[in-house]
């Protein structure tokens, strides 16, 4: 992609000069992130912009603290140019997650490096939405304190929620497993955070998990579906390297595909949703009796998964049978999704990724038998390596992506000096 020089566009009566300059700044900053450090001359050649324009853009990125100069370019013919690179400490984004059993936060810098990570167990189903937001704000305040020690404030806070989210309004339309309906989450957060200058956005947790799994530059990860499992089951779609969220942002609710019409009642009120046969609560119900420690609400999510893996490794027949049953149902749903969308990979995330080694063969068997196209249509099954942090990692990635979309969100150093004078 190339963007014309700002004065060329403005002089031709095209796009507004400021808009084109922001687009050029974004293009240049992304190029430094994705293509690595380079000299101004090399950037100009790679982006199809003239050297004067690139020099001006680099100067502005440096003034905003988003880029910095490094060493002299090696192997250059003639006078070597100075390398320009992304300044990781130039901006920060914060991701957060609200789920049934926990709230969490994660702050990253412009280079994607984690600088703060916090998590606390909360039985969100037993609290009113305002109380859950209070718990999250407590965690966010700690994260903001960590950034303050670095002399920074975030550009954006992005919160992932297990439910249908109206992103434009910042509202959780319905979250069956939280018991929420019509919760104006973004507004609540802004109020409790003191109406901050930075952006506050809300998104579906599985969409954010999909963002975290879509590894840039990996052709196998350009078209993926993410099935994110905890108490409930969510999904995310990445098409041609970009998140796909549907007409109103509600795409990816895989957990509420009806796969078993004679089955169990779901938290959404319908019967036989995919969630009812592959959710963590179903696995535990099949594998245990009343009074088993795995059924205790006091046992944390990670501890439950650890115990499931321990029993499976010890050849606990009942646990293995339950895992195989879940795996078959995962495969049945995965086949339906593959027939409809034919992704390059279906990534099992959350608890499904953590225990997936025990039933991946079952999933692949059902996928092969249920997909019309030969060789499962080229779709492969992958297990996430992000554990239960996939959604909050994706939220942090989206938060810092705002800077790459619009570098002018970060003030110039000269602007700050003028404001002080």
TrEMBL record:
Q: Name one Pfam family in it.
A: ROK
On the tree of life, the source organism's domain of life is Bacteria
Cross-referenced InterPro entries = ATPase_NBD, ROK, WH-like_DNA-bd_sf, WH_DNA-bd_sf
The entry sums up its family as follows: Belongs to the ROK (NagC/XylR) family.
> How is this protein named in the record?
ROK family protein
């Amino acid at each position: 992609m190339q963007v014309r020089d700002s004065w060329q566009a403005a002089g031709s009566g095209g796009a507004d000069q400021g808009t084109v300059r922001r687009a050029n700044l974004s293009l240049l900053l992304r190029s430094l992130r994705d293509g690595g450090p380079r000299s101004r001359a090399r950037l100009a050649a790679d982006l199809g912009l003239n050297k004067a324009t690139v020099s001006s853009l680099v100067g502005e990125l440096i003034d905003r603290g988003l880029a910095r100069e490094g060493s002299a370019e090696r192997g250059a013919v003639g006078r070597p140019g100075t390398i320009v690179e992304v300044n990781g400490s130039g901006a920060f984004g914060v991701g957060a997650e609200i789920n049934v059993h926990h709230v969490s936060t994660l702050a990253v810098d412009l280079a994607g490096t984690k600088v703060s990570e916090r998590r606390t167990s909360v039985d969100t189903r037993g609290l009113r939405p305002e109380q859950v937001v209070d718990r999250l704000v407590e965690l966010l305040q700690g994260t903001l304190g960590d950034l303050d020690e670095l002399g920074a404030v975030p550009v954006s806070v992005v919160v992932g929620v297990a439910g249908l989210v109206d992103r434009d309004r910042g509202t959780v339309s319905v979250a069956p497993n939280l018991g929420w309906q019509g919760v104006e989450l973004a507004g609540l957060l802004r109020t409790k955070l003191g109406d901050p200058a930075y952006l506050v956005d809300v998104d579906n947790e599985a969409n954010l998990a999909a963002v975290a799994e879509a590894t840039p530059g990996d052709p196998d990860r350009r078209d993926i579906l993410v099935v994110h499992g905890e108490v409930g089951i969510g999904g995310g779609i990445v098409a041609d390297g970009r998140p796909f969220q549907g007409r109103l942002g509600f795409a990816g609710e895989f957990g509420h595909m009806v796969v078993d019409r004679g089955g169990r009642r779901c938290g959404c009120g319908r019967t036989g949703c995919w969630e009812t046969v592959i959710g963590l609560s179903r696995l535990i119900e099949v594998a245990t009796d009343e009074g088993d420690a795995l059924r205790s609400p006091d046992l944390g999510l990670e501890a439950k998964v650890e115990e499931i893996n321990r029993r499976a490794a010890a050849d606990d027949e009942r646990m293995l049978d339950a895992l195989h049953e879940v795996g078959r149902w995962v495969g049945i749903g995965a086949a339906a999704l593959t027939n409809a969308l034919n992704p390059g990979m279906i990534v099992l995330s959350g608890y499904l990724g953590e225990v997936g080694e025990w039933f991946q063969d079952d999933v692949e068997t059902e996928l092969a038998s249920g997909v019309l196209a030969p060789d499962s249509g080229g779709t492969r099954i992958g297990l996430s390596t992000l554990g239960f942090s996939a959604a909050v990692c994706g939220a942090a990635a989206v938060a810092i992506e705002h800077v790459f979309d619009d570098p002018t969100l970060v003030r110039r150093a000269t602007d700050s000096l003028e404001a002080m004078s």
